[in-house]
Amino acid sequence: MRKVMVAGIVVLALVLIGIAGPLIMDALGYQYINENRLYLKGQYEIQSLSKNTHVVGHAEGKNFSLYVLDKENLERFKSGLDFEAVYSWRHVANVSFDFRTYDERLYLVIKNELNERQWIKLKLKARRD
Question: pTM, whole model, 2 decimals?
Fold first, then answer.
């Protein structure tokens, strides 16, 4: 019985952290990502970046695009409409980036540009200066 209660509390804590992740990142002013993910054909992933942070990182794969978007252009991207990126790297095999988010939350979007699956590695650090 005790093990079930402990497991329940751990699961609840993980769910709350997952839901409140962006709020926790904003409060701490620090974000770190080091992942190697398998992307399906045309799949993309969105990482939320806190405002007023310095973002440094590197991404590598075979052929992908990386965009830094504001909220309005993120919605346009997700809807398949034309969008304007704050920063963009299109059809690259690797890219290093170093930028600041200033007064607004920005979104880092990685999109697989291959017609097949591929592994894309992302390493990112964002912190308030």
Answer: 0.77
